[in-house]
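Dear V.,

Thank you for sending over the compound details. I've combined the ligand you provided, zinc ion, with the protein sequence from our construct and run the structure prediction for the complex. I'm sharing the raw inputs here so there's no ambiguity about protonation or stereochemistry in the SMILES, which I know was a concern on your side last time.
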Amino acid sequence: MRAVTFQAPGEVAIEEKADPELRAADEAIVRVEASGICGSDLHIFHGRVPVEPGFTIGHEFVGTVLAAGEDVERVAVGDRVLGCFHTACATCSSCLRGDYHRCRTGQTFGHGSKLGNLQGAQAELLAVPRANLTLRRVPEGMSAEVALFAGDVMGTGYHAIAHAGMRSGDTVAVLGLGPVGLCAVQAALAGGAVEVFAIDTVPQRLAMAASFGATPLHLNEDEPKKAVRVATEGLGVDVVVDAVGDPGPLAMAISLARDAGTVSGIGAYAGRGEVPLGLAWLKGLQLRLGLANVIAHVDRVLALMVAGKLDPAPLVTHHMKLDQAAEAYVLYDQREALKIVLTP
Ligand SMILES: [Zn+2]
Ligand SMILES: [Zn+2]
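Below is the predicted structure of the protein with zinc ion bound, written out as structure tokens.
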């Protein structure tokens, strides 16, 4: 089979590899129909997340079950399925609390030996451990490029809102309108937010957020802090999502939140940074951080997608072949594409 592998910072390749085989009773083999290139793949591409040369990358996928071990009960050979970006065991202390994203033996697809040593989904075939939890049937009539969002990007946008405890009638601000931020905008509106302020610097992304029903605010041209203050009678918003993952946006999120509001940091923070903790304390804010618990959300996210309340289709800007992966990564790195879907 062909697979997209990391080679060196700035370099991916298409390699011919041995077909994966079933190694466990709860595993499935999937023939991949479509896979996505994600912002977190760029961390690997740049070498910020260390992955061994020759390791297959990618973690968003839709495909058909080719083989399944005897303990796989929730999907069967021939089923069209989508995957969550990581696996979970269902029996460790984290999983028993429903915190699948903190599973003590969880593995992330396509992130090298440090994150579970699980070969990735930008390939023709994929071995899927813990298939009962990792896979879901694709709802009737849903396209592959839409379905693959449920187990990663849309699940993450949804988590940013759900984890914040947003209620119907709340006001929301989303900082950073990459795919996750745009999905968070949709999730907030689907959850009954009365106004969603969408903040970024890229005009096309602001326009897309506006087309979903958000109020777009250009970071540098619209004075978002002032605009939010005026629109909320000086109170600030109930929920702020930082979909960037840097101290700067987190500081801004703290300033945009109302007293006793919630800041939901879904972007990937790294290292140390300065944020106005005094202001956060004074306001009595809740900070909710961390990776998305997509396995806990995937069924609700799919239900909302079937109902048309969440629709990632406009986010897919590029369709490319697996063989064009090297070109696709360069394109994605240049921020020319919002979402690239690869097909074999
Ligand atoms: Zn992803
Ligand atoms: Zn577990």
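A first observation: Residues 38, 40, 59-60, 85, 152-153 surround zinc ion (ligand 1) (CB under 6 Å).

Warm regards,
I. M.
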